[in-house]
Structure formats: C-alpha cells, structure tokens
Specification:
alpha+beta; Beta-Lactamase; 5-stranded antiparallel sheet; 5-stranded mixed sheet; 13 helices; 50% helix; elongated
C-alpha cells in the first residue's frame, strides 16, 4: 500500500514538473517571438508596396521611433535622414497618436531637411498601423500655398489698380459738371477724363489678355513668321511717343530670321519692351532694337539708356503689377502688367526672356525664341 502511494506521488510530481517545463517552453517561445518582432523591421503585409507607390511622402515608425520604411518622397523632401525623422514636430505628433490611438491631421511649416534652411508647408496625417507602428503621410503644399497667395495678391492688386482710375473718372465727371460755364476748365477736365478712361481701358484689356495667355500652354495654329517684320511693326507703334520725347529708336540690320508663332502676340511682346524702354529713357537718349540668330535661337534685344533696375528688383520685374518706379509708372500710364504679358507670350512660344541692367546705365531685355526650321524652296524658286 505504501509503495503504491509513493508511486502515485512520484507520478504526480513528474506530471507537475513536466507541465511546468512545458509552460516554461511556451513562455520562452512567446518571449522569443516578441524579441524577434522587435528585431525584425518588417512592416505589415502590403505596406512596403504602398509606400513605394506613393507620390507623396510616407514613413512607418517602430515603437522606438526608428523609420523602418520610407517612401522615396519622404527622403527627397527631407523628412527622413539616416533612418530617423528629422523634425521633432513629427515625433511629438507620433507620440500623441500612440497615447491616444486616434489619427491626427496637421498643417506644419518645416525645413527641407537637416542641411537646408528653406521652409515648406506640409499637410501631414499620422495614424496607428496595427498595434506597434505609426504611419506618417505628408504632402508638400508649398506650391499650392504660393499660388493661393498669388491669386489673392492678384485680386487685391486688380482692386487697387481699378480703384484709382475709376475714382478719377468719377471726380473729373463731377468737376466737369460744375465747370460747365467755363470752356477752359471744361476742356481741361475733358482731356484728363480721356486720359483716365484710356488708362482704364488699357488696364482692362491687359488683364483680359493676361488671363487668356495663362489659360493656354501652347499655340493652336502657329505660323512661320519673319522676325524683321515683327520688330518693324512693334517699333512703329512707339514712334510717335519716342519722337515727342526726342528719343531715337535705332533698329539693327535685317536678320532674315524666322520663328513659328502668333504674329499678333509676338508684336505685342516686342512692343511692350520697346514702349518700356521709351518710357524709362531720358529725353534725347537712344533705344536700340536688334535681332540675331545663334545656334538655332533667334534673339530679339531691346536696349535703353534709362534709369536701370536695381539688382534686388530684377527677380520681380516679371511679376504682375510690379513696378520698379511706382511714381514714374503712374505718370506714364503704366499698368504693371506689360512685362508679365511679355513673359507669358515668350513662354507659350517655347522661349525665354532675360534681362541685364545696371542702375544709371540702362537695361537690356532679350527675347530668345527657337528658330523655325528652314522651309523647302518652291518649284518656282528652284527653277529660277
């Protein structure tokens, strides 16, 4: 009996020890799996492919805030460097997501990486990915914000520019009524009324023209045009004003260059440059207009001996409504849209415009357009 009892006790102890050992094995296995998960940087299935396909920036953080996967855009935008998030603002948001479990969307102004002081506006969204990871998505909204600011400035500038001549027209009309019995005053106010209404008309026409140019990326039906004819037509439009100020417009020799484009628009572009040169040149000075061909490029150059442009203003002169000399522009009736129109005309013709200037010495504007390919001679030309 006693021996049987000892056998049973031994068996029970063996089972208990065996169960404990098995339990220890399970615990060790679980710890091993957890350790492997910590060491293994793999993200949930499919996330790798999603991040690789993203055009916007995306990254996945592990519990230690290491970046275990990042899209190419996240690196190029400067959000991720050396497998770490660069910006503490993003780390703070990731911590909030872990604590609350709720997704967060924010608009931030961040630097473009650890070695770049330029800033960017970013829209970010962070959310938990499973139980351990945090997913960060970011979209660079810098250009969108810039365009919004341009639109707001454009509306504000239009309002300001229209307000001045409209107010002047109203005041002059009222003054004209009060001076009905004074022929001299009537003529004086009538002339000023004509000037202001003309300025208002030019401004409206240029706003419409600029809107049309910005709405098109290329020309619908370009024609092969003689550049010498374009220059001649543009210069003729400024002859009267130039002669009134004793300004000589000197045109270089014939180039026989040809370009593909819209004749009306190119004449407008060259005329705007010549008109600017005349307006900003002192009496008795000289404006030069020349054309040359070089390596498949046609260059139309307008040079003046005017006041010149400060270096700080050179980058802004093609902006809408920007004027180097506000008082002089208003006196000459300038709208501040001429150079912006020139820039857009040249761009839709596949060219570019460059400027050199030195205060006190004058300015040189150069329109560069691709030269039209030579046309095959006609049968009559061949036979002759």
């Amino acid at each position: 009996m006693e021996s049987t009892w000892l056998v049973l006790v031994s068996l029970a102890l063996g089972l208990a020890v065996g169960a404990g050992f098995v339990t220890l094995l399970h615990v060790a296995e679980r710890h091993g799996r957890r350790a492997a998960e910590v060491v293994n940087p793999a993200v949930p299935d499919g996330i790798d492919q999603v991040l690789d396909a993203l055009e916007s920036a995306g990254a996945v953080l592990d519990p230690s805030n290491n970046v275990i996967k990042a899209s190419p855009a996240a690196v190029s935008m400067g959000l991720v460097w050396n497998q770490q998030l660069v910006h503490p603002e993003l780390l703070e948001l990731a911590g909030q997501v872990r604590r609350s479990g709720d997704a967060i969307s924010e608009s931030l102004i961040l630097s473009r990486g650890p070695f770049n002081d330029a800033s960017m506006r970013v829209r970010v969204r962070l959310a938990r990915l499973g139980t351990r990871y945090v997913l960060i998505l970011a979209e660079d909204r810098t250009e969108a914000f810039r365009l919004d600011e341009v639109r707001r400035d454009f509306v504000a500038n239009i309002s300001h520019e229209l307000k001045t001549p409209i107010a002047a027209v109203g005041l002059l009309a009222e003054a004209l009524g009060h001076a009905a019995d004074d022929p001299v005053q009537v003529r004086r106010f009538a002339n000023r009324l004509t000037t202001e209404s003309g300025r208002l008309t030019r401004l409206t026409q240029e706003i419409i023209e600029l809107s049309r140019l910005q709405a098109q990326d290329s020309l619908a039906e370009p024609e092969v045009l003689n550049v010498d004819d374009i220059v001649s037509a543009a210069v003729d439009q400024s002859r009267v004003v130039a002669d009134a100020d004793r300004i000589t417009i000197a045109v270089g020799k014939k180039s026989r260059a040809e370009v593909s484009g819209d004749e009306r628009l190119l004449v407008m572009a060259v005329h705007n440059l010549v008109a600017n040169a005349v307006h900003y040149s002192p009496e008795g000075s000289r404006v030069g207009v020349g054309v040359r061909r070089h390596d498949g490029v046609v260059e139309i150059t307008v040079t003046d001996q005017g006041v010149g442009i400060a270096e700080a203003d050179l980058e802004r002169i093609f902006e809408r409504f920007f004027r180097v000399d506000q008082a002089r522009s208003r006196h000459t009736g300038g709208t501040g849209l001429g150079l912006s129109i020139v820039k857009h005309i040249v761009q839709i013709h596949g060219g570019d415009i460059r400027v050199w200037s030195q205060p006190g010495s004058g300015s040189t504007f150069t329109i560069r357009l691709p030269e039209a390919p030579p046309t095959a001679p006609s049968a009559a030309e061949t036979s002759s």
